Amino acid sequence: MLKFIVALVVALAVTEAVKLHPSKIKFARKQALTKRQAGTTCAENQFMCESGECILAEWACDTQADCSDGSDEKDCQCMCRGEHKFQCSNGKCVPTSFICDAFDDCGDGSDEVDCQSCPREGYVLCAGSTKCVHETWFCDGWAHCPGGYDEANCEPKRCNETTEFTCDNGECIPLIFRCDHGHDCDDASDEALCRTYPVT
C-alpha cells in the first residue's frame, strides 16, 4: 500500500511539472526510458551512450542531451526535425509555434529576433524592436519594451483619493504608506511635508 501511495505522489508530481511546457513531457518520458544498468547492450532501435545508458536512436543528435554524459549530442551534424522545426542559435530545437511568441524559449533569445508581428492574440510588437509584449502591459507603470515604449504617451493615472496617495510623479501608493518614514514614491514625495516625530 505504501509503494502505491509513493508511486501515486511521484506520478502527480511529474504530471504537475510537465504541465508547464510540451517539451517537459518529452523530457520526463526520456528520463524514464534512459534508466538502464551500465554494461548492457542496447536494442537495434536504441543508441548506447558512453555511460552505458540506452536511449531511443531518434533522440541522438536532437540538440537535447538525453544521455547523462551528453554523448548523444557529440559530433552531431544535424538539423531540427519532427515537431521541432526551428533551430535556435545555441543549437536547441523548438516548435515553430514558439517563434515570436514573446517568450525566450531558446534560452538565447534567438526565437524572438526579427519579429515583424506577434502571432499570439493579445500581444503587440514594441516600436523600434522585435519584442512582443501583452497589450495589458501598456501603461501599467512598468517598462516592458526597450526604451520604455509601452509607458510613453500614457494618460496620467488617477489615484483613488480615499485609499491612495498621489505621488508628485503621478504614481499611486496605498494611503497608509504616506508619512510612514519610508520612501514609497519613486520621488519620495510621500514623506514630504510630514510631521516629524522625535527620536527616542
Features:
alpha+beta; transmembrane; 8 strands; elongated; signal; two-stranded antiparallel sheet; glycoprotein; Low-density Lipoprotein Receptor; 11% strand; single chain; 200 residues
Share of residues in helices: 10-25%
Q: Helix tally?
A: 2
> Which sequence of SSEs, written as H and E, runs from N to C?
HHEEEEEEEE
Assign the CATH class of the domain at 115-154: Few Secondary Structures
CATH architecture of the domain at 115-154: Irregular
Overall pLDDT? 76
How far is the first residue's CA from the last residue's CA? 64 Å
* Biggest beta-sheet profile: 2 strands, antiparallel
Give the full name of the CATH homologous superfamily of the domain at 115-154.
Answer: Low-density Lipoprotein Receptor
Strand line-up in the sheet with most strands? 1-2
Low-confidence stretches: 6-38
Radius of gyration using CA atoms only: 26 Å
Q: How many strands in all? A: 8
By secondary-structure content and strand pairing, the structural class works out as alpha+beta
Share of residues in strands = 5-15%
CATH topology of the domain at 115-154: Low-density Lipoprotein Receptor
Shape: elongated
GO biological process, one term: vesicle-mediated transport
Membrane topology: Single-pass membrane protein
Protein name: EGF-like domain-containing protein
InterPro entries: LDL_receptor-like_sf, LDLR, LDLR_class-A_CS, LDrepeatLR_classA_rpt
